[in-house]
């Protein structure tokens, strides 16, 4: 048996809208959203943790690199449970790093470090956790993408209108870097 809650973001959810309530969610039944070609599932966020951390998964097909972005006040963890994901990170000194992460591998992105990722194998899954003084950003996936009750990937990629990217930093600790260039071997772009 699972309980249904209303949240500020959804008319029905299995996640309580406030902290201090224990709850359980069956596999894949968190709050879901499609963004780009991926399915994001939120299991815990700011409302439940008093803005201390979030916990979500990202599932997707092999695809393009997602846009470079930065979280000025949030640390982010990438733990790969299925498939393979290439993580790109730029440290605060401007050094660029990339790593192909496979099942059981872990990647850490400090706050204020530009980063991006690309899913390298179909049916890959990332477990994400983010925390920091800036709060949590999990509801960004629904705001920029499309909330869904579906448990699968979108039939067509959900690509937000360009103007929508500009509204995100005001509410969430996510700032997109549209002109950012990666100069690592796996990015497909090397310095000239």
Automatic annotation (TrEMBL):
<feature type="domain" description="Cupin type-2">
    <location>
        <begin position="61"/>
        <end position="119"/>
    </location>
</feature>
<dbReference type="InterPro" id="IPR013096">
    <property type="entry name" value="Cupin_2"/>
</dbReference>
<dbReference type="Pfam" id="PF07883">
    <property type="entry name" value="Cupin_2"/>
</dbReference>
<dbReference type="InterPro" id="IPR053146">
    <property type="entry name" value="QDO-like"/>
</dbReference>
<feature type="region of interest" description="Disordered">
    <location>
        <begin position="1"/>
        <end position="20"/>
    </location>
</feature>
<protein>
    <recommendedName>
        <fullName>Cupin type-2 domain-containing protein</fullName>
    </recommendedName>
</protein>
<dbReference type="InterPro" id="IPR014710">
    <property type="entry name" value="RmlC-like_jellyroll"/>
</dbReference>
<dbReference type="InterPro" id="IPR011051">
    <property type="entry name" value="RmlC_Cupin_sf"/>
</dbReference>
């Amino acid at each position: 048996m699972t309980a249904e809650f209303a949240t500020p973001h959804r008319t029905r959810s299995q996640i309580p809208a406030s902290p201090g309530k224990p709850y359980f969610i069956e596999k894949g039944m968190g709050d879901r959203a499609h963004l780009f070609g991926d399915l994001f599932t939120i299991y815990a966020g700011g409302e439940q943790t008093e803005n201390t951390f979030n916990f979500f998964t990202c599932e997707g097909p092999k695809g393009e690199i997602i846009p470079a972005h930065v979280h000025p006040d949030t640390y982010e963890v990438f733990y790969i449970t299925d498939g393979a994901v290439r993580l790109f990170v730029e440290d605060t000194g401007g050094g660029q790093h990339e790593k192909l992460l496979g099942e059981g591998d872990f990647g850490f992105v400090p706050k204020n470090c530009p980063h991006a990722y690309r899913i390298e194998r179909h049916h890959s899954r990332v477990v994400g956790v983010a925390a920091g003084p800036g709060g949590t950003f999990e509801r960004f996936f629904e705001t920029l993408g499309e909330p869904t009750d579906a448990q699968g990937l979108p039939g067509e990629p959900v690509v937000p209108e360009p103007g929508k990217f500009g509204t995100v930093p005001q509410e969430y600790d996510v700032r997109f870097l549209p002109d950012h260039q990666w100069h690592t071997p796996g990015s497909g772009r090397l310095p000239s």
